[in-house]
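hey so i finally got around to running both of the ones u sent me last week. sorry it took forever, my laptop kept dying halfway thru and i had to restart like 3 times lol. anyway pasting them below in the order u listed, first the sequence line then the structure token line for each. didnt double check formatting much so if smth looks off just lmk and ill redo it

first one:
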Amino acid sequence: MLRQFFPQKPELKSQRELGLMREAGKLVAQALRICRETARPGAKTLDIDMAVEAFYASHGALPLFKGYPGRVPFPACTCISLNEQVVHGIPGQRVIHEGDLVKIDLDKLLGRADLATMMVMPRRAPAI
């Protein structure tokens, strides 16, 4: 049954390719931790993107999204969307507020690792 949807055989990876993918995954997981630490009420989505770009640069990593071809090359190394925005938003001056739904997508070129997450910004408890 599945062969009608996937006529080609799966591509088997070499040990080298698997090792590159593993290391890429570790790096992208670290970048996601940076996103979670940076994404706070009051932060701009551009702040998150700049933190990830600096992290990638310090590790010699190339973000897949930045410069991705289109009418206009994609300008950021992350895709960040808030609330009503669908995925693959462009980071910018939009400020994160309490209760916002933040969606972040990360990718790294060498070794190819892709990771996406969503988080809801906490609301402060009212003063008693």
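and the second one:
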Amino acid sequence: MSMLMVPMMISPIAVGLIWKLLLHPDLGIVNYVLDVIGIGGADWLASPKTALMTIVFIEVWQWTPFVMVLIYAGLLSMPEEPFEAATIDGQAVGSSSAT
């Protein structure tokens, strides 16, 4: 669980620098892997067509663990009584909205 939190714990400046190095057009590992596969890389941060989607991807990568922890904490804090009442009323175990 703690490995999922690593992107959120890294400072946004460090995340920016890391991804800038990963997406470098000549030295970045992303373009290298794409070249090895045969797709060919791009200049991810220089082109207006790819820059916005790249930045959105990086932001989603960084903040998804935080949202998941919030959702998980919310699910854990839900009371058991509604689920017990649904089971008594005959609702199937897997059809509950929170399971």
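quick thing i noticed on the 2nd:
The two ends are 19 Å apart (CA to CA).
anyway thats it, ttyl
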